[in-house]
Amino acid sequence: MACESEDMAAKPAARWWLELAQHAWAGACAGAFTGPGWRVVGWVAPCAGDPMTLPDVGAPAAALAGLRELAMGDKASALLLAAQGDCRAELARRGDAPELIWVRAGQASPVAWADGADGWAMAQLELGSGDWLVSVSAAYPQATGWDAERLAAAVRRWIETGTDATQLADCLIRTGQRLAQSLRSSLADAALWAARLRPLLSATVWTGPPSDPTQDRALLEALLAEPGTRIICGDTTAQIAARLLGRELVIDQRELAQAEVPPSAQLEGVHLVTEGLITLRHAAEWLRGARTVRDLPRNVDASTRLARHLMAVDEVRFLVGAAVNPAQVDGEAGGAPQRLAAVDELVAGLRALGKVVLVQRY
Asked: Against a cut of 0.85, is the pTM above it?
């Protein structure tokens, strides 16, 4: 997502990210969808379907339409959010959905709703960096005994601790379960989501030499143009970069004892340099079952470092060279480099985590 910076004449448009987390208990559903320049999140209660199985959600309008269809029952309530690249948020509310919590600079901000079609209320917000949006279904305050004022106060306290969206959602989940248990009430039909607007974090990964060696410098320049994290995966790729930069490639001696994953290296101007195929495969394995970067092990080998770098950002661009290494060819895939399959697996894992992933092949 790209929002205008304060001084467009002095610097280019800033890039922002709407950080999302959602959860639903039995009887309700919640889903989040991501695409280049847009994000959609919402809950529906009660809900008879699974938002994450909705087809054709390649655009925010389609994602919103799919969530709306899940809320078409007479007793269904919902609160949906769609945010696009200009930092405007479109909200849709139905049924007995409690008021949205909008926190800006530590203070609650009101939301102006207008009547829409088919029983929906609509609102539009201009978001700013650091803004928080939090929504719960009616079953949450009913089960916890918290009124709107107490819930909003708790949300503001958690925000003040420096939490992220996943941590804030986890606070709501744990608190809701504890209070519901003490009150012997039910969280059935309860759902929630949390969203925070913050600067976008990005990374570029260059793996594999291009099929045309004259493109070596173009790929290096594309990597160095990355304002965030720069990563090289592949011994030959790293040697090409070191040669073009005129800098020394230094192997990390501390990782030589790692049996499964080759050691990383250091190259000035690049944040992480690793071996290619093995490291990519292991990093893809680390992504399985991990929800956030905090779920990854504390291992310091190259594959866990790669997984950490990728999970810590919101947008990842892969520069994939198509040159063939005869020792790494997949005979079952028509002689395609095994590296391409490893990249595809990593891309799938990152997209499943809600990352925006771009792949450019050379």
From this structure: yes
